[in-house]
Amino acid sequence: MGGGYAPNDIDLSDPVYEKILVKSPASIANLGPGFDILALAIEGLYDKVLVKPLKEPRIVVNADGAPPGRDNSAYAVAEHMLSRYCPNCGVVVHVWKGVPVSAGLGSSGATSAAVAYALNELYGLNLTTEELLEAAVEGEHLVSGARHYDNVAASLLGGLVIIGRHAGLGVLRLDPPDAWLGIVIMQSNERGKTGLARSLLPRDLDLQRHIAQTSAVASLLAAIHLNDPVLFGRAVSVDYVAEPVRKAMIPLYDELKATALREGALGFNISGAGPSVFIVHNDRGEAERIVRELVQLLSANGVSAESFVTSPSAEGVKVIDSD
């Protein structure tokens, strides 16, 4: 993605392309014990974003499946990038939502990463990964009130990302593990759901729970290095920070987890801020069977849900059309 911002003598009002169309994958943040540290891009759910230059310096955001204008995360990202890198430029952004909104699958992160990447390509800005992340996180801040980098980094880079920024260590991308992920999608009608979910989190963690949480994160990363889906599943099932308080927002959470593990899932936890949940398995057919049972359990109790089985995505945002 380049080594830095384009030189001052380049006329950035003259775009490299007439339009850019990109797609950006959904993601699962936290992965159990990795709150605000880990996220995984997944196959099968994508946002598509088209950007086209305007002759006048203004931003127009249209969206299918999400709010238009300033209420869309795309606007915040475009505003940040144009004000910083090309103040006399204008752009039309059109968003097609393929990632479910308010489901815990990185919907705003997928859009935000897509817009940052597309504008970088459209104007030939040659931004670094860090600069793109700083732009993309503006969209997350608009939606949730917090600058959390996990979903945007996973959508931007693909694979599994480690957010080391909290310790001044940047962002690291790892190849994803060989495992199947069964997703049970439930959507929230709560506006500001992510912000609410963050407000429930404990402000302090006692030493023994900190040690247990850190042990689970270390085990999860070891599982990736060893390509061990069994250890990966066990590790993602552990969380002493978010799961104990956020599960109250998810219908039948304890029953879902108990059923999944009893039926042979290698792991189970909340996807991002919820309310969707995910399982880990090393066999696709078994993963499909288990998530069907979970959907049936929810349906029997009057909760609407759908499921699909996917795998980690090694690819992040990519251009699918330009001219």
Quickly describe the structure.
This protein has 323 residues and is α+β, with helices and mostly antiparallel strands. It contains 10 helices and 11 strands.
Question: Can you describe what's shown?
Answer:
With 323 residues, the protein is of the alpha+beta class. It folds into two domains: 20-173 and 313-322, Ribosomal Protein S5, domain 2, CATH 3.30.230.10; 177-310, 2-Layer Sandwich (Alpha-Beta Plaits). Helix content is 37%, strand content 23%. It contains ten helices and eleven strands. The strands form two sheets. Strands 1, 2, 3, 4, 5, 6 and 11 form a seven-stranded mixed β-sheet that branches. The radius of gyration is 20 Å and the shape is globular.
Provide the descriptors you would attach to this structure in a database record:
alpha+beta; seven-stranded mixed β-sheet; disordered N terminus; Alpha-Beta Plaits; 323 residues; four-stranded antiparallel β-sheet
Order of helices and strands: EEEHEHHHEEEHHHHHEEHEE
| CATH architectural designation of the largest domain | 2-Layer Sandwich
Radius of gyration: 20 Å
Helix content percent band: 25-40%
Write the layout of secondary structure elements.
Blueprint: E1 20-29, E2 38-54, E3 59-64, H1 73-85, E4 90-96, H2 107-122, H3 129-144, H4 150-157, E5 160-163, E6 171-174, E7 180-185, H5 193-199, H6 207-226, H7 229-236, H8 243-246, H9 253-262, E8 267-270, E9 277-281, H10 284-300, E10 306-310, E11 318-322
Helix pairs in contact: 1-2, 1-3, 2-3, 2-4, 6-7
